Known about the structure:
Elements: H1 11-15, E1 40-41, E2 46-54, E3 57-58, E4 67-71, E5 74-76, E6 78-85, E7 121-126, H2 136-150, E8 156-161, H3 176-184, H4 216-231, E9 238-244, E10 250-252, E11 274-276, H5 278-290, E12 293-299, H6 331-359, E13 364-365, H7 373-379, E14 382-388, E15 399-406, E16 412-415, E17 418-420, H8 424-427, H9 434-443, E18 453-462, E19 466-475, E20 483-485, E21 488-500, E22 506-518, H10 520-529, E23 531-538, E24 543-553, E25 559-568, E26 578-579, E27 583-587, E28 593-594, E29 600-602, E30 606-614, E31 626-634, E32 637-646, E33 657-665, E34 673-683, E35 693-702
Parallel strand pairs: 7-8, 7-9, 9-12, 12-13, 29-35
Antiparallel strand pairs: 1-2, 2-3, 2-14, 2-16, 4-5, 4-15, 6-14, 10-11, 15-17, 18-19, 19-23, 20-21, 21-22, 21-24, 24-25, 26-30, 27-28, 27-30, 30-33, 31-32, 31-34, 34-35
Helix pairs in contact: 2-3, 4-5, 5-6
Amino acid sequence: MKIKPAVALLLLFCILLPALGQDKPAPPPQQSGDQDDVIKITTNLVQVDVVVTKDGKLVTDLTADDFEIYEDGRRQTITSFAYISNIPTSAPEPAPTTAKKKKDDVVVPFTPVKPNDPRRIMAFVVDDLGIAWENIPLVKRQLRKFINEQMEPHDLVAIIRTGGELGVLQQFTNDKRLLLRAVERLRWNHCNRVGIHTFAPVGVSDFGGSLCGGRSYYSSLRSLGFIVDAMGQLPGRKSMVVLSDSMPVETQENELGSGPGTARGERLTLGPNTENFSGALHKVAERAIRSSVVIYSVETTGLVYTGPTAADPFPLGLRQVWAGEGPAETGPQQTTRMMNDRSKALWNRRQGGDLIARQTGGFPIRNSNSYDFDRILEDQAGYYLLGYRPSEETFNRRLHRIKAKVKRSGMSLRTRFGFVGVTKEEAKRAKPTPRSATNLALASPFAAQDIEVDLTSFFAADKQSGPVVRSFVYVDPKDLTFTRVDGRYHASLELYGVIFGDNGVIVEERADAATFNFSDADYEQITRDGIGIGFDMPAKRPGAYQVRVAARDKATSKIGTAGQYMAVPDLKKKQQLAVSGIVLGTINSDKTVGRTGIRRFLAGSDLYYAYNLYKAIDENGNPRDLVMDVILFREGKVVQTVPGVPIVATDQSDRSQVFVGSTLRLDPALEPGHYHLQVVVRNRNVKQKGPAVAQWADFAIEK
């Protein structure tokens, strides 16, 4: 395909831009590859991360002389030392709040996190295969609270289910809108191994796991292993917060839900059907250590009452319930036995989570209705790196136990249990192919920056092709390799577009090859203005999505990526307003619209914005009396507003949609940085019901 060097595109032409080809790239790889320098095991250095606390607070002012480190009981000489902070030194203050947050308040997006920025990377793994039905509301409530109140702009967070499709890397984001939507999609999994209640009423079967063969624990452990492998692709020290009711080390088969154990009061007498999962749990911990992932286990039951409830049939019957347990017991004896059995079940269920947490340097959270997420956040704020020179015995492919000590009194230290003596070079996978490298770049939450790429994506209701996600891509030609042939400039570029659902799974993808053939005049223009490219991808269902595009120079295999949050409205709902998505640009001297994909502007300039408004007529076919509020945010704070701008339908030939285009003069005093433009559409003098009809576009202001 040959692409013309037209950068200043007519807006109407942009909106009608046809889609590119349909060739699909391979799905993102599911194996971890090269890893960062947190857990480094080379022939010259073994490097281990440790966390030191005092009275529950991080200690950050220690020196190498304050530590001792041992490998298999032998003290090592510390040859490298550093403290790594995950908190930016200039972290923005949260926007001031003058009133209590309402349910329908619009969530302000955060600034994208760059690869080299300090940040916390946290995967909240909801083990829906091991959470009782009655505990799902508490899980959702605490995750919503974390996102709305505790999450910081520099945090990268993912919400992942063990019982769902596992797209991992692409789910990491600091956009609260995507995370809240992922929380709302959490549901009780009928295949879970616990059942409906934390404790089934005595004498009642809870159907835990029996509907799906009782093998859900194996699925949970496989999911955890896959997630930590994928997280190994991300830089720095990461954390995985595992939320589950039941992660035992050793259990009977019927405790997995495949037998009548829950109907017998969840008795845990071990017998010939006992299964031991310690090997699989140790394997998860080892993979987490290799991927620089610290695991925290959260008991999602919260603070549990083990005594009799209204659901328990007290006084209990005779031997029907406790079959084979001897003579009938009195009411108090039955109550004591039941409480002991339930306490033992709780103890058993938490042992696996405790194991993988302690071996990877984390800790368990028990008996807490708040789940103590603030403790985990504090623990992830920073860490020390202790390095020493290994001996030849280190690389014998056996498990080596690590122990670190802090010499100062009153302090606690946590680190990883150990590591297998294989060097980083031996563990490294084969070099990825250009295609797999491109797919990995698409999946990563960090933008690849070998090629400068900007992206503007929005929803459009195309009459011919149907609902689409329409994207404008800007590529900086200085990062491409041009060859001079017959007096013209030639280059080739591969383009990949992917739409990820809120569960991280690919829902649409496109690929195409762009061939450039520029004259001297065209080359001079694209050198000055850049290259604008556009393509469509189908939007089959309404929902929240992430759109990501990768550009790869075929001559050098250099890659650049860009991404954007997208909301596809449901146009089938009658009389519900919907905004397509916002296109940003500048007005050229010839009245065309330029810089539609770049999203970088100067303070004091005129920012052009445009969108389509759907369902702008009422039930009687008359235009609604609509106005829009235009609000400019920087780091969550309002810096500029234009309220009550009338929306006028200039073209009544197509009453299904209204095109809105206007300009905003950017305040000359605005500082360089990342900004969000919000457009809120409302009926004039009509009280708003439900969430605001709003749309966002982000851009940068440069000097």
